[in-house]
Amino acid sequence: MLTTLLLPLSLAAGQPFHSTRDAPVLIGSQRVVITDKLEHPWAIAWLPDGRALITERPGRLRLLAGDTLVEAPVAGVPTVFAMGQGGLLDVAVHPDFAQEPWVYLTYSTGTAEANRTEVGRGKFVDGTLSDWQVLYRVSADKSGAQHFGARMAWKADGTLLVSIGDGGNPPLKLGERFIREHAQELDHGLGMVLRLNADGSIPKDNPHVGKDGVDAAIWSHGHRNIQGLAIDRETGVVFANEHGALGGDELNRIEPGANYGWPKVSWSREYVGAAQVGSGRSDAAYTDPLLVWETAMGPSGLMVYRGSQFKDWQGKVFSGSLVKQDVRVLTLDEAGAVAREETLRFGARVRDVREGPDGAIYVLTDERNGRLFKLTPAAPPPAG
Q1: Dihedral through CA 54, CA 57, CA 61, CA 66, nearest 10?
Q2: For residue 312, is it left (φ>0), alpha (ψ between -120 and 50) or beta?
């Protein structure tokens, strides 16, 4: 029988929740496939009129009208570097779209020898993107096709959070050092969460504004490769999940100016030789995770459910899993610590999980014939 790992509150307040086994299945939902004609979809976001935009990593932005996937891709998308983990990644819609019809994208550009993550936006009018603007570009080019990030989430104050990966695994270097070491530097955005104004300018209250030699867009640092970023719209708490190396995936609560330790401390092991990454698992100088998946689960899209359809799921944190091919559902206690972990199984790499404007839950699978699932409450059993 599968059991749930629970920590006493005294431990949960000061130590991360540890997931070391398969989680029990969460019941109470039913699902339908809206479409199975997406090529490696990465993210979904809704327009105010109910239509949805879906990114495909090879470089296409697709429009979903009701349950119909429009055949022709959206025009005006910038050319991307689609290789390995790179390509067209996240999509977000301006929170005041009626007055500011901007659609935001994260993506990789360049070549296998010199590439970087970019954040840009274009006006979405009559099904086309125009007036394209690059809002942020990682200033250091790298080689390879790993660890670009790059999730986005809107804060209630109208600023945009963006995650940027650390650039890749050893032996990949930037200058004379392994590229991942730059997650502890503050000069060019690798291994960071950024905070931008909607027009790409830097908010004056960012934690590093005015410091010499520092990228003022940085909101937090010491990250490996954040693949899920979500804000609880009732509490304002920012959550992020990120990949470890060999195990040690994390869920973190993101605070401005905080350092999350990568690669100085971690729960990860090296891919070659399985040695501990960093000097240990925790240090007072760094912010500890809320949850550690010691066995790799490959976290992906992230959300906090506040919709109208699943009344018993209010405030639960949903994290996609590429490796376990499911969605992990986390219950938080009153102190904000993880107290319970359950699962919704899909049998395919889950790339994104989002709450739709109708209160349903939508899940994208990362496949050549990628699917979009819609989850609604299970029908009650027949009377008698």
Answers
A1: -30
A2: alpha
Half-sphere exposure of 305 (CA within 13 A, CB side): 26
Structure tokens belonging to residue 17: 């929740």
The C-alpha atoms of residue 50 and residue 165 are separated, in whole angstroms, by 31
Nearest CA among 310, 302, 305 for reference residue 352? 302
Tell the CATH topology of 16-377.
Neuraminidase (2.120.10)
Identity (one letter) of the amino acid at 380? P
> What residues does each domain of the chain span?
16-377
Beta carbons within 10 angstroms of residue 79's beta carbon: 9
Percent share of the chain, pLDDT over 90: 91
**Coil, strand or helix at 301:** strand
Q: What is the value of pTM for the model shown?
A: 0.94
Side-by-side strand order, sheet with 317-321: 299-304, 317-321, 326-332, 338-345
- As a whole number, mean pLDDT of residues 21-42 equals 94
Phi, psi angle pair for 115, to nearest 5°: -140, 170
188 is catalytic: no
Q: Which of 147, 182, 221, 223 is catalytic?
A: 147
Would you state the structure tokens that stand for residue 20, as one six-digit string?
């070391």
Write out pLDDT tens, residues 265-298: 999 999 999 999 999 999 999 999 999 999 999 9
8 Å CB contact between 288 and 265: no
CA distances in angstroms from 40 to 36, 44, 303, 320, listed in the order given: 10, 12, 20, 15
What are the C-alpha distances in Å from 342 to residues 244, 252, 339?
21, 18, 10
Sheet holding 17-19, edge to edge: 17-19, 291-293, 249-253, 238-242, 226-231
Write down how long the chain is: 384
Chain segment 344-357, per-residue pLDDT in tens = 999 999 999 999 99
pLDDT tier for residue 14 given thresholds of 50, 70 and 90: low
Confidence of residue 6 (pLDDT cuts 50, 70, 90): very low
